[in-house]
UniProtKB/TrEMBL annotation:
Residues 1-25 are annotated as: Disordered. It comes from Lipomyces tetrasporus. The lineage of its organism: Eukaryota, Fungi, Dikarya, Ascomycota, Saccharomycotina. SUPFAM superfamilies: Protein kinase-like (PK-like) (SSF56112). This is Aurora kinase. It comes from the Eukaryota. Its main location: nucleus. Residues 66-316 form the Protein kinase domain. ATP binds at residues 76, 95, 144-146, 193-194, 207. The active site is at 189 (proton acceptor). GO terms for biological process: attachment of spindle microtubules to kinetochore; homologous chromosome segregation; meiotic spindle checkpoint signaling; regulation of cytokinesis; regulation of mitotic cell cycle spindle assembly checkpoint; regulation of organelle assembly; response to mitotic cell cycle spindle assembly checkpoint signaling; sister chromatid segregation. Its EC number is 2.7.11.1. It is found in: Chromosome, Centromere, Kinetochore.
């Protein structure tokens, strides 16, 4: 799909008529949450859809169902555009992937699993997948629009986050991971590149390509990003949901320092530092934050700090009163 010729929304739908069905119930039910991101002065589109018949509620989506705006980003397997549903005015993100690329890189199974997992998730800090459709050459995912963009770009621009912002992000991510784990889902690829920021500044966990639904808990596949791999993966051992706890520790460090804790130019050196848990925390990191990082970055998975205790950790408790109330922080009543 070519990028728009101007920043204004334009008509979509060149080429062969796409096909494929998806229920629009989720899109309709989400109007109130994200309608303000559209910039429209009209009332939320959900109000205009209450009288739809059951047949109309299950729409057939195609590329021509949307007005396509600017490109939001580009990943290994596709591009993401801002889009507006013509029927409702609802603003979303449309991820476009070439089928031949998915086949070439042999990720069809991984892609299918990603859709199955993400489409069933409902959490304020997890990016919604509302539906999907396809044409002869492409697959399209209808995703929640994250108004403030990519966490990775924000972190690189700032260099590092202060304790107030980092603690709020980490508490939100811990809440999202706890939700996943209760559903027996391991994310396995937590990193700044897989985080987005919503319109109100809240974290949105995305990219479930390496995620797995695993009621039996133990897994053997090495996956994820090198700097975030836990010792059990580096040492080719079985792993379970506690790999996400390790990744949360790495992420906490990167938020506060600006780079991952075990980063080295050579892969072997990184593997060695991870296996030894060769952790060096700079002195400018607060005592409370350093404590949480050390508690999460434990070589033995069973010793890692539990997610349900993170909201009560001293670092979170100390900074919670300073969090901006508009950014969806996980506040506790006193």
């Amino acid at each position: 799909m070519p990028p728009p010729s101007s920043p204004n929304l334009h008509k979509a739908g060149a080429g062969p008529a796409p096909h494929g069905y998806v229920s629009s119930h989720d899109v309709v039910n989400a109007q109130t949450d994200a309608h303000r991101s559209s910039g429209s002065n009209s009332s939320p589109p959900i109000t205009a859809l209450h009288n739809q018949s059951e047949v109309q509620a299950h729409r057939q989506y195609s590329l021509d169902s949307f007005e396509i705006g600017r490109k939001l980003g580009k990943g290994k397997f596709g591009k993401v555009y801002c889009a507006r549903d013509k029927a409702t005015g609802y603003v979303c993100a449309l991820k476009v992937m070439e089928k031949k690329e998915l086949i070439h890189f042999k990720v069809e199974k991984q892609f299918r699993r990603e859709i199955e997992i993400q489409s069933n998730l409902r959490h304020p800090n997890i990016l919604r997948l509302y539906g999907h459709f396809h044409d002869s050459s492409r697959v399209f995912l209808i995703l929640e629009y994250a108004g403030q963009g990519e966490m990775f770009k924000v972190l690189r621009k700032k260099g590092r986050f202060n304790d107030i912002l980092a603690s709020q992000y980490i508490c939100q991510i811990a809440s999202a991971l706890s939700y996943l784990h209760k559903k027996h889902i391991i994310h396995r690829d937590l990193k700044p590149e897989n985080l987005l920021i919503g319109l109100d500044g809240e974290v949105k966990l995305s990219d479930f390509g390496w995620s797995v639904h695993t009621p039996s808990s133990r897994r053997t596949t090495m996956c994820g990003t090198l700097d975030y791999l836990p010792p059990e993966m580096v040492e080719a051992k079985d792993h379970d949901y506690k790999v996400d706890l390790w990744a949360l520790g790495v992420l906490t460090y990167e938020f506060l320092v600006g780079n991952p804790p075990f980063e080295e130019p050579a892969h072997k050196a990184t593997y060695k530092r991870i296996s030894k848990v060769d952790l060096k925390i700079p002195p400018f990191v607060s005592v409370e934050a350093a404590d949480l990082i050390r508690r999460l970055l434990q070589h033995q998975p069973e010793r890692r700090y539990p997610l349900d205790q993170i909201p009560d950790h001293p670092w979170i408790v100390k900074n919670r009163p300073l969090w901006p109330s508009s950014s969806g922080g996980q506040r506790r009543s006193s």
